[in-house]
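Methods: example folding runs. The two proteins below were folded one after another, and each record is reproduced exactly as written to the output file, sequence line first and structure-token line second.
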Amino acid sequence: MPKLKPPVRTPHIDMTPMVDLFSVLLIFLLLTASFRPQEATTITSPNSVSEKQAPDTSIMTIILNKEGKVFFNMDNGKDSTKHTRVDVLTEMGKQYNIKFTPKELYDFGHWASFGMPMVDFKKWLNAKDSKEKELLQTGIPTDSVDNQPSQLFFWVRFARLANPNAEVAIKGDGETNYKKVKLVMDLLQENKVNKFNLVTNLEKQEVTLKDLPK
């Protein structure tokens, strides 16, 4: 009598638990992720072959777009217990007789780069949409008024006092007028900042056989 062969079954993997796990992880990431605020202006940095990387934290950046408008950015430093941005804005308010509410200070602590005269700062903080905020971003004044240093001078001064260990960087557009960059460099030196970085894009450098030493 011939033997009976059991039916051959194709292996089956139940993917339902994996899909459920993926959905839970996705929801967790969406709830905990912090989205980076939109920058004040678009910059096309010049290229260079330098491979030095700018630090991720504890950095102060002066930004110049191709029209020569100046913007500013800073983080809260490496110490998570400090609120450098809030401290700096508070000092700027004292300098220009502007009182900021706790909500305005909190909101400013979570924004990125900015650039407008102090007279428009509260309008910018309380703007209802991004379009209104963008229209107010006319650049930080760099000229002295009534024999007083410029507003950019005080932004740098108070940021340095709040975080003396912060590195300083200039991020200029490739089409920015050099005179404007020189003005910013002079202003940094007035604040005794003699060491700073120029932010550029890394340019790939190809080497051929004829470039190699013989």
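Second run, written to the same file directly after the first:
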Amino acid sequence: MARLVCAVVACVVTLGFAIPASAVDLAKDPKVKLSVRKGLDWIARNQRRQGYWEANQGQYRVAMTALAGTALLAEGSTTTRGKYSKQIRLTVDYLIEMQRRNGLIGYENDYRYTYGHGFTMLFLSQVYGEEEDARRRKKLKQVLTDAVKFSGDAQTTRGGWGYVSAKDGRDFDEGSTCVTQVQGLRACRNAGIPVSKEIIERAKKYIADCQTADGGIQYSFQNKGGSRPPITAAAVATMFNSGDYESDVVKKMMAYCEKSVWPGTGGGRRVSGHFHYAHYYYSQVMYRKGKKDWNKYFNDIGAEILRKQSADGSWKEGYIGPIYVTAINTTILQLGNGYLPIYQR
């Protein structure tokens, strides 16, 4: 009988997602550590010698590079120490070289350059906080200062951001790029780079103005097509980053996410489109809510992630490409490490 009980327990632990969070802490499971190691090793192997990564068809090079670099940082490596220090140094050097005279980090002919700019501000600000080399630190400070200025100048009259700057995009704005800019700006501010409070407050108001009657956030202030779970999840993370946990706007967004993102329908594993984008941000929200909520969430989403990993260590879901999904999934699995200030409780 004892052997039978042990066998059943072992089987359930192997499945991970089949038992309550109170019984198993998946974040401490050796399978998670192995999955992360395989994923990060795949990322490291697939870095180009110039220091970048890219999505399918060579797209989104700056954004993919910043996301991949952030996943490596979450392991605890820096530019000078750790298993992935060489890859991180190459990433930093590449992104620094990508800055233009106006402060943009990216390609001016890229029709979605604000994504890469925002993710890069986040990545470089985390590097800046741990940089030990005086010359590199000085350079990073200047790069981030110029990047912050560009973001401020790129903000629309309503307080949001679009795929390109307000000037280049005829003052168009939408939620997903707004979230990316705010989180990047907050990361810079946390690292000691001056960021105008007015820019953040205008962005928070823009998000609030995009809230619909059901508590969710719509695609754009100009687009009345209804709320979207992925953008709402991202907006909550941004508001948390900005220090807002209790406003009516945030409470309504949280209630919406509980119905539409997690636990939601289908075991919390399905979001209508942009699953990885949604959980990249919503995982940050659940981690900040504390151990109880995080363990329940992680046991569900973590098991979902582990099931879909390829033998080579990558994840190949979605149309953007494996570097995108692998960077996001390994970042989610490493939130509990607590190495990156922007993700800390």
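Comment on the second run: The chain has 13 helices and two strands.
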